[in-house]
From TrEMBL:
<keyword id="KW-0520">NAD</keyword>
<dbReference type="Pfam" id="PF00389">
    <property type="entry name" value="2-Hacid_dh"/>
</dbReference>
<feature type="domain" description="D-isomer specific 2-hydroxyacid dehydrogenase catalytic">
    <location>
        <begin position="8"/>
        <end position="312"/>
    </location>
</feature>
<dbReference type="Pfam" id="PF02826">
    <property type="entry name" value="2-Hacid_dh_C"/>
</dbReference>
<dbReference type="GO" id="GO:0030267">
    <property type="term" value="F:glyoxylate reductase (NADPH) activity"/>
</dbReference>
<keyword id="KW-0560">Oxidoreductase</keyword>
<feature type="domain" description="D-isomer specific 2-hydroxyacid dehydrogenase NAD-binding">
    <location>
        <begin position="108"/>
        <end position="281"/>
    </location>
</feature>
<dbReference type="InterPro" id="IPR006140">
    <property type="entry name" value="D-isomer_DH_NAD-bd"/>
</dbReference>
<dbReference type="GO" id="GO:0051287">
    <property type="term" value="F:NAD binding"/>
</dbReference>
<dbReference type="GO" id="GO:0005829">
    <property type="term" value="C:cytosol"/>
</dbReference>
<comment type="similarity">
    <text>Belongs to the D-isomer specific 2-hydroxyacid dehydrogenase family.</text>
</comment>
<dbReference type="InterPro" id="IPR006139">
    <property type="entry name" value="D-isomer_2_OHA_DH_cat_dom"/>
</dbReference>
<dbReference type="InterPro" id="IPR050223">
    <property type="entry name" value="D-isomer_2-hydroxyacid_DH"/>
</dbReference>
<dbReference type="InterPro" id="IPR029752">
    <property type="entry name" value="D-isomer_DH_CS1"/>
</dbReference>
<dbReference type="InterPro" id="IPR036291">
    <property type="entry name" value="NAD(P)-bd_dom_sf"/>
</dbReference>
<dbReference type="GO" id="GO:0016618">
    <property type="term" value="F:hydroxypyruvate reductase [NAD(P)H] activity"/>
</dbReference>
<protein>
    <submittedName>
        <fullName>2-hydroxyacid dehydrogenase</fullName>
    </submittedName>
</protein>
Length: 324
């Protein structure tokens, strides 16, 4: 009987997902994420977590009967998976269901950035087309560009397919070379950056790529360089990016993610050669709904003694199984 299984929701969650969860499970919603203020008895009863954002080690340690963490999102850099794995706690995420949405958004950001579509739209809305005339011709174009993808996973590949349709040559950097694509592989990010002029970041984030896109990489990308980031803000050295945009080391950037969300540095906002979006890559009702359904299916499966639909690689590797 799932209604006797307690699921902790620390912080905000998609409202439809929260509603469905409440209809299925016994939900403890701790909006300020402070689990320590729950009674010991209540903490003991928690067997699952449904969340977006972060689950640090101390939150897991405060819940002695925790079995599963169901992350709302494909990226789970906020979850201390190493700690979860060491405790035999399953972690699931929401791959696939958001791939096309995020790839669509990426192409939109790229076009907005190189063709100044936001500024051009503003020109019309402010009545300047009629009063001043045409919006100036854009110095940048997608024509003749070469795309370099950092992180050729599911989302990176969906972006690559779209870029192919746009006629762009594609190269990539990944943890390891893929055997199922013919795109040129670069074993280092700097090598990729020096070979292309359009760097698209679709890497998952986390310690391994923290601030990997640094001053050296940006310099290698060069003065016509465009950076698009739809992965994680932590993958870019944000102060170095701001420098590079201010002094012309690169040309422009389109960013959906930032180092310290929802804070966006004022210097970044002051720049005209940036397109800045509030982490909307997957943010349609359709796709967030599908992600929520997957979170719930992962939890439902688990508490019915089955394997979850989408366990993360670390949990699979560790052979973590339901407890019944
Ligand atoms: C999530 C995301 O909605 O899937 C991801 O990794 O970044 C977004 O799609 C986000 O994690 C929750 O706010």
């Amino acid at each position: 009987d799932l209604s006797s299984v307690t699921i902790l929701v620390p912080g905000k969650l998609n409202p439809d997902t929260l509603d469905t969860l409440k209809k299925t499970f016994d939900v403890e919603h701790v909006l300020d994420r402070d689990v320590s203020k729950l009674s010991q008895e209540r903490r003991n009863s928690v067997r699952g977590i449904a969340m977006m954002g972060a689950v640090p080690a101390d939150m897991m340690d405060a819940l002695p009967n925790l079995e599963i963490i169901a992350n709302f999102g494909v990226g789970y850099d906020g979850v201390d998976v190493k700690h979860a794995t060491s405790k035999g706690v399953m972690v699931t995420n929401t791959p696939d269901v958001l791939t096309d949405e995020v790839a669509d958004t990426t192409l939109a950001i790229l076009l907005m950035t190189v063709r100044e579509l936001y500024a051009a739209e503003k020109h019309l809305r402010e009545g300047r087309w009629e009063s001043e005339g045409n919006y100036p011709l854009t110095p940048m174009t997608l024509r003749g560009r070469t795309a370099g993808i950092m992180g050729l996973g599911r989302i990176g590949l969906a972006i690559a397919r779209r870029l192919e349709a746009f006629g762009l040559p594609i190269e990539y950097h990944n943890r390891s070379e893929r055997t199922d694509v013919t795109y040129r592989y670069h074993p280092s990010l700097e090598s990729l950056a020096s070979s292309v002029d359009t760097l698209i970041i679709a890497a998952p984030g986390g310690a391994a790529t923290e601030r990997a896109v640094d001053a050296k990489v940006l310099k290698a990308l060069g003065p016509d360089g465009v950076v698009v980031n739809i992965g994680r803000g932590t993958t870019i050295d944000e102060p170095a990016l701001i420098e590079a945009l201010e002094n012309g080391t690169i040309r422009a950037a389109g960013l959906d993610v930032f180092e310290n969300e929802p804070h966006v540095p004022a210097r970044l906002i002051a720049l005209q050669n940036t397109v800045l979006l509030p982490h909307v890559g997957s943010a349609s009702r359709h796709t967030r709904g599908a992600m929520g359904d997957l979170v719930i299916r992962n939890l439902t499966n688990w508490f019915q003694g089955q394997t979850p639909v989408s366990p993360v690689a670390e949990s699979v590797k560790a052979g973590i199984l339901p407890r019944r």
